[in-house]
Amino acid sequence: MSNEAATATTAAEPAAETEALPHGLGVSLPHADARAKTEGTFPYAADLWAEGLLWAAVLRSPHAHARIVSVDTGHAREMPGVRAVITHEDVPGTPRHGRGTPDRPVFASEVVRHHGEPIAAVAADHPDTARMAAAAIIVEYEVLDPVTDPEQAFEAEPLHPDGNLIRHIPLHHGDPEAAGEIVVEGLYRIGRQDPAPIGAEAGLAVPRPDGGVELYLASTDPHADRNTAAACYALSPDRVKIVVTGVPGATADREDQGFQLPLGLLALRTGCPVKLTATREESFLGHVHRHPTLLRYRHHADAEGKLVKVEAQVLLDAGAYADTSAEALAAAVSFACGPYVVPNAFIEGWAVRTNNPPSGHVRGEGAMQVCAAYEAQMDKLAKKLGLDPAELRLRNVLATGDVLPIGQTVTCPAPVAELLQAVRDFPLPALPKDTPEEEWLLPGGPEGAGEPDAVRRGVGYGLGMVHMLGAEGADEVSTATVKVHDGVATVLCAAVETGQGFTTLARQIVQETLGIEEVHVAPVDTDQPPAGGGCRGRHTWVSGGAVERAAKMVRTQLLQPLAHKFGMSTELLQITDGKITSYDGVLSTTVTEAMDGKELWATAQCRPHPTEPLNAAGQGDAFVGLAFCAIRAVVDVDIELGSVRVVELAVAQDVGRILNPTQLAARIEAGVTQGVGIALTENLRTPRGLIRHPDLTGYALPTALDAPDIQIVKLVEERDVVAPFGAKSVSAIPVVTAPAAIASAVRAATGRPVNRLPIRPQAAVVTDR
Fold it and tell me: What positions does the domain Aldehyde oxidase/xanthine dehydrogenase a/b hammerhead occupy (predicted)?
C-alpha cells in the first residue's frame, strides 16, 4: 500500500470506545462513532488528502436528449495546471456500468440520454482549475426531442440499443372472470424523490506501484463497485482495491458509479492521487432517484367488504438507464394488492426507459408506490360500503399461512391484524386550542393558516409490506471473521455501516456470545471477503448471521478444553458477563483466564435459503422474508389554502426481535419522517427531462419542524425462525407506509380523492363546502 493510501486509511478509522458500556443483544448500546459524528470530527471521504493530490471535475450534459456531433478538448488541455482530460475514448475496458443492468456508459459518446450525463472528466492541480477546464471543453450537440412521458416510451423510437422496455411482468392469479358486487377504480401518480444523501459525495483515487489503483469511497457495496471499476480499467480485480470511508448516511445507493469511475481513470492516467468532491447540483444530476410511477387500479369486493379481485397496471419510469428497475418492478407487482387476502389478482407491470433522470434503488422501491395506490382504493371501498376504513381493512388482512398473489405462502410471522388494531385503538391526540398562543399548531405555522374555522382534522390508515434481502434467486451471502486476543475481540466483515447500526450490532453479537466487553469492528475494504450491499435489512440478517456463526465457533474453541478437562459437554457451560460457569457450579473462571494468552479466530458464512424468479405468469417463491407495518395518521388541513400539518403518526410494526431498542426506535422515526417528505414536499421536478432547481433550496426536504409527533405504539416481537436472532428489517417499511397513511388522513379531512404524491395544495382545497 502506498504512503498516500496509508494516510487515507488512518483518517477513515473511527476512534475506539474506551468507556465501559452495557453490552449484549437487547441493550441500547450506542454507536461507536456517535461522539465523533456529533462533534464533527468523524472523517468522511471529503476530508481525505494525499501527497501530490490533483482535483477532478466532470463535464455533464446540459440536455436531456441530444446527439453528440463533436467534442473539442484542446482548450482544456492547454490550460496551465491541467494534467489530464479524458472522454469515452480513454476508457480502456468495459465502457458500461450499472447496479442491476450494465447499460450506462462511463462517458457518453454518440448520444446523451439524460440531463447531467457525463461527457468528459478533468484532473488539475486546483479544484477551480479543474472546473474551469471542464467548462472549456467544447461540445457540439444536435438537440433531440426528449421522451419524458413513460406511456409514450412504448411507441417512441428506441432511446437505447437495448430498447425502451426494460421489463414486463404479467401477474395472473385466480379466476379472471371473478367479479364483486362493489367496484372502485382509481388513477394514481407518484412523483420523483431524491435520496438527498447527507454530506458531499466524494472520493479519492490513489495509483499503486503495481499499476493498480486504490479508491477511497463511501461505497455501500464495495465488492460490486470494485468489480465494475476493474472491468472499466481493464485490470484484474486484485489490482483494484476499495477502502470504505465514513458513510454520511445512506437511504439508497450512496454514490453514482459514474462519479466513482472517472476518479480511477484519472489517477491511472496521471500517476497521481485524484480527488473529486461533488457539488449538491452534481449529486442531483448524477445519482439515481425513486421511480416516478403511474398506477391504474380496479378493486372488486362483495357486499360485506371482502376483496374478490384486484386488477392493476403499474408503470415505472426508469429514466435513461435500467439500473435496478427490474427488481423494483418485481416488488411493485408482487405487493400491488398489499397485505390483504386477494383470491384473484391480475397485475400488469412495466418498467421503461425515458429521457428523464435515472431511477434506481431508494428505500422501499416499488412497494412504496403501490402502497399509496392500494390504500387509496381501500378508502374508496370503505366509503362506498359505508364502513369504517379500519374495519374494512381488518376484514381483509393477511396472516401467516395465507397465499400471496405470486403464489408464495406466507410462512413468516404476519401479525397485520394485531398491528392495525394497535394503532386504531391508540388514543387520538387532543384538538388544538383556538387561541393566539396556539396558532403555531395550525397548518402552515405561525400566521401561515387562514381562519381557524377553515381547518379540518382527518384520521387515516396505511398498511404496508416489504421484502427483506434480495429476491428472485439473488444469492445472498456474507462472510465474517471473529478474532479474540488478550480479552479483546475484533470483527472483520465487509458489511458497510451506512447508519443502519451494523457495527453496533456486530459488537453486541460478539459480546452476547463470548462475554467479551471490548469488541472492535475493523474498517471495510475489498481485501475482506464480500458481504454484499447494505439494503433491505441484509446486514442485520446475513452479515449479522455470519458474525454470530463465527463467534459461536470461537466460543466452541474456547470452551472445548474446559469441557474436556471437567468431563462435560460444552452445552453445559455458559458465558455471562465475562465469566464461564458450569451448570453445577463446579467450574467458574473468567474468559481471560480461559484464553491463557491464546489467539482464537474463526470465519463463517451465512446464506439464507434460495428463492426463485417469477415465472411468465408472475408466480414463484420470490422472497426470503416479509415485514409489515400499520400507521394511523392524524392531520390538520386548511381547506381554503390546502396546507397540511401532520399532527401525529401512530406506528405499530412487526420487528421479529428487538436487538437494540434505541437504535430501532431511531430507525423507525427516521423512516416515518422520510415518508412525510414523500407525502407532502419532495418532488424533483423535471420539465422536458431537465432537473429544475437541483439544490436543497428548490427541493424541499422535511426539517425537524416538519417532523410530526411519532408514537411507536406497538412492536410485535414474533421471531422469524429462519432469520438469525429472529429479527426483521425495520427502516424501509415505515417509509413505504407513512405516505399512504397521510394521504388517507387528508382524504378523510377534505373528502377529496388525493390521487397524487406529493400532495399538492390544490388537491386539499375544498371549494364546495
Answer: 39-145
Q: What is the DSSP letter of 763?
A: G
What amino acid occupies position 444? G
Alpha-carbon dihedral sign for residues 145, 146, 148, 152? positive
* Rounded to 5°, angle at Cα 125 from 86 and 43: 100
Tens-place pLDDT, residues 630-656: 999 999 999 998 999 999 999 999 998
Q: What is the mean pLDDT of residues 103-107?
A: 95
> What is the residue-averaged pLDDT of the chain?
89
**Which residues, in sequence order, are CB contacts of 280 under 8 Å at separation 6+?**
200, 694, 695, 696
Longest pairwise C-alpha distance within the chain:
86
Q: How far is CA 653 from CA 106, 112, 356, 429, 626, in A?
A: 42, 44, 35, 20, 12
DSSP 729: -
Q: What is the DSSP string of 683-708?
A: ----GGGPPSS-STTTS----TTT--
CA distances 649 to 632, 677, 681, 720, Å, are: 6, 13, 17, 26
Measured in degrees and rounded to the nearest 5, phi and psi for residue 482 equal -120, 125
414-423, 468-477, 675-684: range with lowest mean pLDDT: 468-477
Q: Which grid cell is 110?
A: 454518440
Instruction: Indicate the residue type of 612.
Output: E
Determine how many CB atoms are found less than 10 A away from the CB of residue 577: 11
282 vs 267: CA distance, rounded Å? 21
Strand 644-654 and strand 623-638: the pairing is antiparallel
- Scanning 40-170, the segments in alpha helix (DSSP H) are 74-78, 127-136
For 209, the 3-state DSSP assignment is coil
Output the nine-digit C-alpha cell for 76: 482544456
The CA-based angle 276-277-279, given to 5 degrees, is 135
The answer to whether 397 and 419 have CB atoms below 8 angstroms apart is: no
**Residue 351: what are its φ and ψ, rounded to 5°?**
-120, 125
Cα 167 to its chain centre, rounded Å, is 21
pTM over 0.90: yes
d(CA 715, CA 727): 12
What's the N-to-C CA distance of the chain in angstroms?
A: 72
Look at 30-34, 269-273, 280-284, 699-703 and tell me which has the smallest mean pLDDT: 30-34
- The C-alpha cell at 764 is 386539499
82-86/118-124 β-pairing: antiparallel
Which string of b and e fits 346-381 if b means at least 16 CB within 10 Å?
bbbbbbbbbbbbbbbbbbbbbbbbbbbbbbbbbbbb
Look up residue 564 and give its three cell numbers. 474436556
Contact 534, 502 (CB under 8 A): yes
The DSSP bridge partners found for residue 204 are 216, 275
Cell of 671: 423512516
- Which grid cell sits at 419? 398491528
Measured between alpha carbons, how far is 436 from 90 in angstroms, rounded to an integer?
Answer: 66
Instruction: For 494-509, give the DSSP string.
Output: ----SSS-HHHHHHHH
CA distances from 460 to 240, 362, 424, 651, 713 (A): 52, 25, 10, 12, 16
Report the Cα 592 to chain-centroid distance in Å: 41
